[in-house]
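Journal club side-thread
Mid-discussion, someone asked how the predicted structure for our own chain would compare to the paper's figures. Pasting it here so we can look after the session.
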Amino acid sequence: MEGLGLKLENLREKAGYTQQEMSFKLGFSKNTFGKYEREDIDPSLVTLVRIADFFQVPIEMLLRDKEPAYLKNYHDVKEILDLLEEAGLKTPFLTDVNSWSLLGKKELQDLHEYFYRQVQQAAKKED
């Protein structure tokens, strides 16, 4: 599992935790997460699932050396969802796929144009 340690370290640092804090949050002994990061020991599959769930990443991101094609945009989508949550939309209607399937071509085009205008206006504000 070459590279797993670095992936774990990057996820932990991005989340703002120490190795010891991660160990406690996941129910491990004090130094276990550090051992995973240094690749002194390999986590079990069950442990990898717990870690992936904690960081809300697909387990494949931890297991594969190269990200599969279907995960290429995962990070961008995750950032957008995080922005929506920061804005107070914890379960935004925007992400409810079943609701989107009820819309027709005209409604989808109208929404596309609306979002495009909103993004353009926000970009002008930043300039």
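Post-session note: Residues 56 and 122 are 28 Å apart (CA to CA).
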